[in-house]
Design goal:
Layout (H helix, E strand, L loop, with lengths): L1 H20 L12 H4 L4 E6 L10 E6 L19 E3 L5 E4 L6 E8 L4 E9 L6 E2 L2 E2 L4 E6 L9 E5 L6 E5 L4 E7 L2 E9 L5 E8 L4 E4 L4 E7 L19 E14 L5 H5 L4 E7 L6 E3 L5 E3 L2 E12 L3 E7 L17 E5 L7 E2 L10 E4 L5 E4 L4 E5 L4 E4 L20 E10 L6 E6 L3 E6 L3 E8 L3 E3 L6 E3 L3 E6 L11 E8 L3 E6 L2 E2 L5 E4 L10 E4 L3 E9 L5 H11 L9 E2 L1
Parallel strand pairs: 1-7, 1-8, 9-15
Antiparallel strand pairs: 1-4, 2-3, 2-5, 5-6, 9-12, 10-11, 10-13, 13-14, 16-22, 16-42, 17-21, 18-19, 18-22, 20-21, 23-41, 24-25, 25-28, 26-27, 27-41, 28-40, 29-36, 29-41, 30-31, 30-40, 31-32, 32-35, 33-34, 35-39, 36-37, 37-38
Length: about 575
């Protein structure tokens, strides 16, 4: 009730002030010339959007032909008679107003609120009354003609007002900021170009309006898993539409069969991704900046949860500026290093959220980009090595490292295409910590090293040491063929729980323990190399990926019959 009383009090005060101001204006003998009558030609009261008076606001009457950037300097200023200021109660008045049509503007500097009313005229020769509310400013983004150069500067004005904004072309658009709420005809002046007029641009307070024609695309990717008879999905339980998979990065690929990539390549706009559920609201997903390679456009999207009855919607809109996420592979989900091999070979980019670990190629024979399972892959010769920078030891200032404790979590996944299988080859290693090797007839071997630690004996005056050793997990040779891509995924929770996959086959074997001297004087950098062939989509982290996560990743990244597939909506 107190709120309602306050509104009533403001309304009564406003009405009383207005009646007092125009007490003599109803006289039919009052003329429009204030010099003869002593009455103002235009008067009123302005308030702010909270109902309080717009005290000390600047008010102007602007002739309809006024041009703030006129070539004649004298014409860029309003006559003093057409400018005034409100009093402490928001009252204003003009003794004379422009002949013909004009606009009235008001600006309250303290709040930043403003007002504009166009196309006013005193056609009857009698005093005018105009009372209204000032509002916060808005802005408008205009799609500009192709003749405008990127980063080119110019001026935006509204003829017949004092609105003048300096503007710049960015991403094929210009933003005109701090505009009063109204329907405006905005004129753009660029160097050595004819003025361009945008008519009836609606500006709303506290909003940015995108005005002009825009280009939009929309695609959908159903999350229904492949049929059970598909061998790549045979490990998924049939009839279960909800997978227990959360925060999983998925690759989405557009090719020429779905849309015209040549047209997309010349457009500037924003890509967005959403999970569409029939039982819940549309949920926006983090999406990384797309890569256009080998006739395909590739997107990485982080899916918050996988329900196979849902779908992912992918949209593109030229009316929005590009904006992308950096947490598709989030550090707080223990993504330590992620290589897509799409950034070039001189310095490999780490696509994990923090991006700590760039790769430096050191080679004797040269490194060549090759077709990968998604975008590009990397080809290495037997003597080629990629050293991961800053990966030697632990850094307490970082949330992630490439050194993993015995009693903690460790995982990796990658795609590998070996040219031959007749000799032992090193895939990667962090010397005397862990490694992935290929050995003929044994397949892939994951090694993890344990260095002896000092232990406190029962007698506190004595100490003892546990033993150092190497523990290995062997995949076997099934499913590994020369010249064919193979998926290798490994997750460990301490030494007690291990999940090891080659393609979609889970490896069931006992760990092999062997002697190791265990004398690590200085931790080494992580290195990739020691084999001949191609590698793609390498991910390393400190977490445990379960069966559902591992197989979902396999289905998503497989170079043939990839799931999910995008379709034009």
């Amino acid at each position: 009730m107190k709120f309602c009383k306050n509104i009533k009090a403001v309304t009564v005060a406003f009405s009383a002030a207005f009646m007092a101001l125009f007490a003599g204006c109803s006289d039919s003998h009052v003329a429009g010339n204030s010099a003869e009558t002593g009455s103002p030609e235009l008067a009123g009261i302005f308030v702010l959007d909270n109902g309080s008076p717009a005290a000390r606001a600047r008010v102007q009457c602007v002739p309809s032909d006024f041009n703030i950037i006129s070539a004649d300097r004298a014409e860029r200023s309003l006559p003093q008679a057409f400018e005034t200021e409100t009093d402490e109660n928001g009252n204003y008045e003009f003794d004379s107003i422009p002949s013909g049509r004009f606009s009235i503007e008001a600006f309250h500097e303290e709040s930043g609120q403003m007002f504009l009313k166009q196309n006013l005229a005193n056609e009857q020769g009698e005093p005018l009354a105009l009372n209204d509310t000032l509002r916060h400013s808005g802005s408008v983004k205009l799609l500009v003609p192709g003749a405008f150069r990127e980063n080119q500067g110019g001026d935006a004005i509204v003829v017949g007002t004092t609105i003048h904004r300096r503007i710049f072309v960015q991403n094929g658009k210009i933003e005109v900021d701090s505009l009063p709420a109204d329907s405006l005809d905005i004129v753009i002046y660029m160097d050595k170009l004819f003025p361009v007029k945008f008519e009836n641009v609606s500006v709303q307070p506290d909003e940015t309006t995108v005005w002009g024609d825009s280009v939009t695309y929309s695609f959908t990717a159903p999350l229904a898993l492949p049929e059970r008879e598909n061998p790549k999905a045979e490990n998924f339980a049939s009839g279960d539409s909800v997978r227990v998979v959360t925060d999983i990065p998925l690759a989405l690929v557009l090719d020429s069969s779905v849309c015209d990539l040549d047209s997309l390549d010349h457009l500037v706009g924003r890509w967005e991704a959403f999970r569409i559920s029939h039982s819940a609201a549309k949920n926006q997903l983090p999406i990384a900046e797309p890569q256009l390679q080998n006739g395909k456009m590739m997107f990485w999207v982080r899916l918050d949860s996988l329900n196979t009855a849902d779908e992912i919607e992918l949209t593109f809109n030229t009316a929005k500026d590009p904006a992308y996420a950096f947490d598709v592979f989030p550090t707080n989900r223990s993504y330590s290093l992620v290589y897509h091999f799409d950034s070039g070979l001189s310095l490999l980019e780490d696509s994990a959220e923090k991006g700590y670990f760039e790769g430096s190629a050191e080679t004797a024979t040269g490194l060549d980009s090759s077709g990968g399972v998604l975008g590009n892959g990397m080809h290495l010769g037997a003597d080629d090595v990629v050293t991961v920078k800053n990966s030697a030891g632990k850094d307490s200032t970082r949330k992630v490292n490439l050194t993993f404790d015995d009693d903690g979590y460790f995982c990796f996944s990658l795609w590998l295409q070996l040219e031959s299988l007749d000799k032992e080859q090193l895939i990667f290693e962090k010397a005397e910590e862990y490694a992935l090797r290929y050995v003929p007839k044994q397949g892939f071997i994951v090694d993890f090293y344990h260095e002896a630690m000092q232990l406190v004996a029962e007698d506190v005056s004595k100490t003892a040491e546990d033993s150092s050793y190497k523990i290995s997990w062997v995949s076997g040779a099934d499913g590994i063929n020369a010249g064919e891509w193979v998926y290798v995924a490994f997750s460990r929770r301490a030494f007690e729980q291990v999940l090891f996959y080659v393609n979609d086959r889970q490896i069931v074997s006992e760990a092999e323990k062997s002697d190791w001297a265990g004398n690590v004087k200085e931790r080494a950098n992580f290195q990739l190399g020691g084999f001949t062939g191609n590698i793609d989509e390498l991910s390393i982290g400190a977490c445990f990926h379960d069966e559902s996560w591992t197989l979902t990743t396999y289905l998503n990244q497989h170079p043939e019959n990839r799931w999910p597939s995008l379709f034009a909506r």
